[in-house]
Amino acid sequence: MDKKRKNDQGNRKKKLIRTKREAMIIRTVTILILVIAAFLIWYLIDSRSYVATVAGRRIMKYEYEFLLRQQILKTEQDWGISGKSDAEKEQYWLKTEGGQNPWETAKNETLNTSKKYMIQLIKAKEMGITVDSSVRSEVNRTLLAYQQQLNASDSDFARWVEQSTGVTLDQYRKILERTKVNEKFRNEYIKQNYTPPEITEEEIRAEYEKNGELYDSADIRYVYLKKFDENGTTLPQDQIDAKMAKAMEVLEKIKKGEDMDTLIANYSEESSDDSDEERGKATVNSSSYLQLPYFKDLFDFALEGKAGDADIVDTDMVIFVVRIDKHTEFDDVKNTVKSYLEVSKEAEWYNSELDKWSSDTRFNIIKNDVVYDAITYQNYRKK
Questions:
Q1: DSSP conformational letter for 272
Q2: Which of 150, 188, 332, 367 yields a CA-CA distance of 20 to 30 A from 91?
Q3: Up-side HSE of residue 12: CA atoms within 13 Å toward CB?
């Protein structure tokens, strides 16, 4: 009986020991499974966080998408579709002609831009230029200035950044910091390696003769005749014809030498807060196109003409009777043209250096195909 009791006690001890060992094994296996699961989750998230690598450095997905957005805006502007409807834009981006698809072309161009962006970051680090406290402070001041201009709260500003750039405020800050590093590297590299060539008088004159309208400015006076009523509705054609006849009458008076200020006072329909002395006067240059693109014909006439020229410029909304009072000439803008050529030659030299680095096998780009292929036009439009 005692022997049987001892055996039962021994079996219970063995069972208890086995149960503890099994529990420890189960606990260990459970922890191992959780670690593996956590690693797999991290790996899946991490492997989808970047689009490509250059010399082992990752081009993050948000950086690529930010640059892709800039490429899309530029392409739409170049092709004249920036103001079109979403449907018209989609038709352009998804068409395929001659084996070429605009969307894939834009993606590839952005990949090249991203590669050069990353190469400069790598070479900047080799030169000892990184995102330090001075870079962070400069970027923070820039962002604060943006926010103050918008008079926005922190949350509103963060929302505005995301809507206008396609990335979060924190991501945008990182992009600005890295861009600032690249700018510092570029400036230092040019300082150490670039010898500016001499800009000759012949080169300056040739550039001016080719692109004079980019440098010139003109002072003009004009009579302003509206082709719309107070509600903004286009006038009937007979009324527009009557205003054109009036414009021709004014032009004849200008050609006969009548006082321009008097003609403006008697004929111009422009409503203005300017004093009578400033009414019907303007100075135009190449940036005027950006401010008032719908008056492009007026600016073209002013910049392509010469002092004393007068004519009627008929636009969609307004009939102008214009006289050019003053127009810059070569000697007036020679230094500006020279400065432009200096900057252009410097940029051309640096870009050639960047192209050399891009062709170096050390900087071969390796795509993360799963992420790259998932960036479709449809997904871009959803952002």
A1: -
A2: 367
A3: 6
Q: Look up tokens 């079109």; give the residue.
A: 84
Give the C-alpha distances (Å, rounded to integers) separating 194 from 43, 189, 190, 258, 348: 44, 8, 5, 57, 11
Rounded-to-integer distance, Cα 29 and Cα 35, Å = 10
CA count, 13 A, side-chain hemisphere, 274: 12
- Assigned token pair, 76: 């739409």
Three-state DSSP state, 363: helix
The first and second tokens of residue 117, run together, are: 């962006």
Dist. CA 334–CA 212, nearest whole Å: 10
Alpha carbons 189 and 351: distance in angstroms, whole number: 12
Taking only the tens place, the pLDDT of each residue in 15-41 is 555 565 555 655 654 554 444 444 434
3-state secondary structure of 27: helix
Q: Tokens 């003769």 map to which residue?
A: 209
pLDDT band at 44 (very low <50, low <70, confident <90, very high): very low
In Å, how far from its chain's centre is CA 140? Answer: 20
Q: Are strands 318-327 and 57-60 parallel, antiparallel or unpaired?
A: unpaired
Which pLDDT belongs to residue 38? 44
CA distance 325 to 219: 5
Structure tokens belonging to residue 90: 């989609």
Nearest-10 crossing angle of helices 330-359, 102-126: 90
- Work out the mean pLDDT of the chain and round it to a whole number: 87
**Average pLDDT, stretch 260-277?**
79
Report the range out of 127-131, 212-216, 290-294 with the highest average pLDDT. Answer: 127-131
Cα separation of 330 and 208, whole Å? 7
Q: Which helix (H) or strand (E) holds 265?
A: helix 260-267
Out of 157-161, 273-277, 285-289, 293-297, least confident range = 273-277
Q: What is the pLDDT of residues 361-377, one digit of tens each?
A: 999 999 999 999 999 98
